[in-house]
Amino acid sequence: MPMKPSSSEEEYFQKENQRKVRMLREKAAREVKEDRDELKKLHWMRCPKCGMQLAELNFRGVEVDSCVSCGGMFLDKGEIEKAMAFKDPGWLGRAVMNFFGAEDDLGKKEE
User: Fold this and answer.
1) Is residue 18 part of a domain?
2) What gap in Å lies between CA 101 and CA 12, rounded to an integer?
3) Which domain holds residue 19?
């Protein structure tokens, strides 16, 4: 007949299992961070359309990423709001605001 493990044995193995699970989670988190860092090195400041180098241009006080090859322009989070904060956003600004459903600062469309 097999012997029933004592409570101290059960406690030991439970703690040992918890330690192993914690170690596995920490290892997985490190690997994910390393993968993310490696991808960032490969893709940082590269055009999502053609893969060429991006250059930062100043547009209305906002640093806009522009592709030197295909001419695409890309905004980081919050940059479109900064660029549109001017009194007269111009025709391009009005077009972007209309596309995203924002109110036109000028109130009326040009006829």
Assistant:
1) yes
2) 62
3) 7-44
